[in-house]
Amino acid sequence: AGGIDMVYPAENTRLHDEIAERGVLLAEMSVGTKPTARLFPVRNRIISGLSRGVIVVEASPRSGSLITARAALDQGREVFAVPGAPGDPRTRGTNGLFRDGAILTESAADVLRAIGEAGTLAMGRQHVFDFTKEFPSSGDHDDTADARPVVMELLGFSPVAVDELVRNCQFSFAAVSAILLELELAGRLERHPGNRVSLINEH
């Protein structure tokens, strides 16, 4: 979630080096940017955008994995979920994905079957994901504090699209995403299908 030179966690250094040798390292942040919690949704959106699909094995209602799954849904990628026991808090988030159209997954065959059926058609119908438009340069990520009161003013108990929030508040997607993540982790924000959000009425 930081610059391409920042290995986090540190124990992944060997994996980092192996990927550099055999594949490619990709980072949206500038060199030297330290990983922070608010940058993880941005990074995960890139990961889901580059993937044919994502699999969620176990996730609580506030798990960061759900943010990645929602990004994948918004990008038209396949979302797979492994069902868990009803009532188990560790799988409530995963089970909730089925309401949003996630594919029930019990084996690798389920994934291969879905990818095989969708194949190039699924990828062909996607628009080109323009990272430069979606994510401003790393210098624009310091406006979270300024954006917070504006975003809070625009949020209510009725669901509103995240894209609409970004347009109306005139701040970067990264700043708005960071604020929404903070609210979600604090139990004050609810996610809805179609990349919409609303405040939770605590009364």
Question: Helices, strands, pairings?
Answer:
Blueprint lengths: L12 H10 L17 H11 L2 E4 L7 H11 L3 E4 L10 H5 L6 E2 L3 H17 L6 H4 L9 H11 L5 E2 H8 L3 H13 L3 E4 L3 E4 L4
Parallel strand pairs: 1-2, 2-3
Antiparallel strand pairs: 4-6, 5-6
Helix pairs in contact: 2-3, 7-9
Q: Can you tell me about this structure?
A:
It is a single chain. Residues 118-141 have low confidence and may be disordered. The chain is 44% helix and 10% strand. The protein is globular, with a radius of gyration of 18 Å. By secondary structure, it is mainly alpha-helical. It has helices spanning 13-22, 40-50, 64-74, 92-96, 108-124, 131-134, 144-154, 162-169, 173-185, and strands at residues 53-56, 78-81, 103-104, 160-161, 189-192, 196-199. The chain folds into three domains: 1-35, no CATH class; 39-124, Rossmann fold (3-Layer(aba) Sandwich), CATH 3.40.50; 136-199, Orthogonal Bundle (Arc Repressor Mutant, subunit A). Strand 5 and strand 6 form a beta hairpin. Helix 7 (144-154) packs across helix 9. The strands form two sheets. A three-stranded parallel sheet has the order 1-2-3, with helices on both faces. The chain starts with 12 loop residues before the first helix and ends with a strand.
Number of helices: 9
Beta percentage is 5-15%
So what's the overall shape? Answer: globular
The sequence of SSEs as H and E is: HHEHEHEHHHEHHEE
What does the main sheet amount to? Answer: 3 strands, parallel
CATH topology of the largest domain: Rossmann fold
Report the oligomer: single chain
Helix content: 40-55%
Strand order of the largest sheet: 1-2-3
Determine Rg (CA atoms, Å).
Answer: 18 Å
